[in-house]
Amino acid sequence: MDVQIFGTRKSADTRKALRFFAERRMKTHFVDLQERAASRGELLRFAQKLGIGALVDEDSRRYGELGLRTARYGDDRWLEVLTAEPLLLKMPLVRWGTALSIGDAAGTWKSWLDA
Global pTM? Predict the structure, then answer.
């Protein structure tokens, strides 16, 4: 089964995820969010399981540039914003079958492989 990783090549955590699975000879499918944004359906899958707040990187530069520090959006509006502005996402988003993780979650990834 392939591991799908959404992120950018500039993200240290995304590179960590790619290296983690490469060291374990797991086949990965990398989606560079600067080249192609994640679909709304894919983001919805993460939001339903982990919550929309877990997807938004409030420390990102792009978050401040867009003036979102005072924004109070509902989940549907956040999905629209994240689809249009993928650099607002916490990276990496990792999917292995139905298992999902956000950010540097080496412990979680290890538990997936052990199971």
Answer: 0.90
